[in-house]
Amino acid sequence: MNTLLKQTLTASVLSTMLASAAFAAPTETPPDFVKRVADGLITRLKADHAKLQNNPALVKTIIRQNLDPYVDSQAFTRIVLGTYANNQYTNAAQRAQFEKNFREVIIENYGSAFAKYTNESYTMRPFRSSNSKNPVVTLDFLHNGEKIPVSFQLADKGDQWKVRNINVSGIDLGLQFRNQFAATVQRNGGDINKAIATFKPDADSAVSKK
């Protein structure tokens, strides 16, 4: 798989996962919601492509304006924490700190991939999700004839859709980061606070597991 494309897509989907909540129109179908978010991001990347490589602040702005509003960040945090999301292991303050640290690391380490965007396009697979509460919409991103499937698992929040997990080329990112965090806890002798402070998610490793 093209390394640059993987990096760009990984940054895109991870950034999509890491943010505060906002509203999506309740009348949207899951495919319409995902298409609106994807098209908004691609349009912005095309418009600002010449400015991105030497402007990290603009990259962060694009993430926050075009991706952040559509994420169930609490659900993603709980997926990555796994059993450590239980009150037995962490309290609300620790979970909030984990969410903050995780988001910043992803934005800092992988936001630069947006600067390398080279007009990738996508097609949407027919929507056949049987899970009305957590439907899955899959896009096939295309680059030089190579197809990379990215599946968005959504959450029905009552009056809006949000993204709660991502699967890239058959790799569940939430699960991969959960395994990485569990390993970090072990390396820190079970000290949750140290694990939260030092956790460095490795997206390249996550999408290379297959």
UniProtKB/TrEMBL annotation:
Signal peptide: 1-24
Highest taxon listed in the record's lineage: Bacteria
InterPro entries: MlaC/ttg2D, Tgt2/MlaC_sf
Gene3D superfamilies the UniProt entry points to: Tgt2/MlaC (3.10.450.710)
Keywords tagged on the record: Signal
Protein name stated in the entry: Toluene tolerance protein
Record organism: Acinetobacter venetianus (strain ATCC 31012 / DSM 23050 / BCRC 14357 / CCUG 45561 / CIP 110063 / KCTC 2702 / LMG 19082 / RAG-1)
